[in-house]
Amino acid sequence: MYKMTGQLRDSDKTQLEQWINQGPKNFTLLFRATSDGCSSQIFHQKCDYQGATITVAYNQQGSVFGGYTSASWAASVASHIRDDRAFLFQLKYSGSDTRRKFPVSNTAYSIYSHASYGPIFGQNDMYLFQQTIQNIGGVFSMDGTCAFGVCYTMTGVTSWNDIHNGDMKATDIEVYSVAAKPPEPNTNQKWRKVPEWNKKSVQELIQEALSIKPNPCLKIQDYRIVLIGPVGSGKSSFCNTVNSVFRGRITQRAICGEGTHSITTAYKPYSIKSNRESKLNIRLCDTRGLETDLGMDIMEFAYLLNGHIPEKYKFNAEQPIAIDDAVFITKPGLQDKIHCVVFVLDASNLHKLDSKIMDKIKSFRKAATRIEIPQAVLLTKIDKEEKALAQKYETVYSNSSIEKKVIQVSEMLGFPKNHVFPVKNYENEVMLDDGVNLLALLALRQILYFAEDYMENQSSDNEDFPIKDHDFEAGSESI
Predict the structure, then answer these.
(1) Strands 87-93 and 96-103, how do they pair?
(2) What confidence tens digit (pLDDT) does each residue in 309-332 have?
(3) Quick one: where's region Disordered (predicted)?
(4) Which residue of 294, 303, 320, 396 shows the fewest CB atoms closer than 10 Å?
(5) Where are the domains of the chain?
């Protein structure tokens, strides 16, 4: 039997699951205007008495919005239906992820079901169409209306224009049934191949990391890796975790903690030494946490990538660095530039991530991609996202919830899934844990590989041009 597929992404489904707040769900496409035709009769034939559903509209401006109801549609009712759990939502605005939930405020009028109409939420709060709408040039000109804030609380927007751009021309309308997902059998099948989970693998990964060095022809000693992420995402904690792995004890050279604003205020590169005085050829560069109106802007980030910002420079939103500043590095060498960008995101907080911060991260990603700097993502706090992991970190790469988070981030930011690495930073521990170490080392190894790839490109580009020696140690802080 042919099964229709819709446009709803896995990351959208994960977000909707969190808003519904009743555990994992299966989303089954019941109705699609482009396939079934856009008519109230077909809508009710396919969607009545199906239990909980979501209705999703896609308009020609790239905006995606809709509504959820736990009540069944029923053409024969011809009246309003009460549903305490109903809500409207926004998933995209003008092509950018913009996630908002608008809960029902007048539950007596949650939805309206009638044979002559498609799905209606509230008292025309979201009313899309009646009877039949023709597909003209790939567009359905919806003849409904959207009344603002009558039966739903529209927090975060000032009108429907902030949701659908004032454009009621849809490229598609979809309705999905929403049903509880049965527990998945514990097959222990890994969704990513990783080494054996033991002390031997830890030591092998440590030795491999110590052995990775820049090409001598480039005359630089270290890979420079910058960590970028929202306040509290775990950038500084990752620096401490990596350092702890190589020092053989819990360390805290990078100051970290919880707060409204970033505890880290400066650009601070850290070099890493092992307990045998061997040194990694890497500098982990901590930065100020991203906030909606504070932290780095796109210009400062571009300066940072290209090596113009000096070590220990303090970020100041009111007075960002400029070309004529005394500290501005006018002629940076390759050793001053960033060789890999690592975005750090809290796995337990993805659904709450501010859209302005997400837009900033996306603009940073574009800036790095434009000059061919490789990028990766660290997905931190996986123990808070999936409490069943508790001290069983060997199950991370067979845990379906963590896999879904990896897929969600991959779709949100446009990364290949093998560029996203789940990690657990040291936080409450006073002793090292092989599982925590392995997660950090697996991520670090691939980040080093990415930086090595970047350097190989630089070596190829500059093979005919000798590079002058530079002072490698000035201004760096060792851990």
Answers:
(1) antiparallel
(2) 988 888 876 778 889 888 899 999
(3) 459-479
(4) 320
(5) 10-180, 199-478
Quick: pLDDT tens for 176-190. 999 998 876 655 688
Residues whose CB is less than 8 angstroms from the CB of residue 113 and which lie 6 or more positions away in sequence, other chains included? 73, 74, 75, 77, 78, 79, 81, 120
In tens, the pLDDT along 290-305 reads 888 777 889 999 999 9
Q: In this structure, are residues 405 and 223 in contact, taking their beta carbons and an 8 Å threshold? A: no
The pLDDT value recorded for residue 355 is: 84
Q: Which helix (H) or strand (E) holds 207?
A: helix 199-211
Contacts of 62 (CB under 8 A, 6+ apart): 92, 93, 94, 95, 96
Residues 6+ apart with CB under 8 A from 465: none
* Share of residues in the chain with pLDDT > 90 (%): 66
**Residue 396 backbone class (left: φ over 0; alpha: ψ -120 to 50; beta: rest):** alpha
User: What is the DSSP annotation of 77-98?
Assistant: T-EEE--TT-EEEEEEETTEEE
Residues 6+ apart with CB under 8 A from 193: none
Q: Which amino acid is it at 449? A: Y
Report CA torsion sign: 434, 270, 289, 11. Answer: negative
Give every strand in the sheet of 126-127, ordered side by side: 79-81, 111-113, 120-121, 126-127
Count of all residues that appear for the chain in the document: 479
What one-letter code names the amino acid at 479?
I
Stretch 177-206: mean pLDDT: 86
| Strand ranges, E, within 334-461 | 340-346, 375-380, 420-422
Domain 199-478 fold is Rossmann fold (3.40.50)
pLDDT tens-digit map of 86-129: 999 999 999 999 999 999 999 999 999 999 999 999 999 999 99
> Tokens 């707060």, residue?
259
Nearest to 306 by CA among 326, 321, 293: 321
First-residue to last-residue Cα distance in the chain: 61
pLDDT band at 258 (very low <50, low <70, confident <90, very high): low
Q: Which residues pair with 269 in a beta bridge?
A: 285
Evaluate whether 361 touches 290 at the Cβ level (below 8 Å): yes
Confidence of residue 465 (pLDDT cuts 50, 70, 90): very low
Take residue 195 and report the two structure tokens written for it. Answer: 């080494």
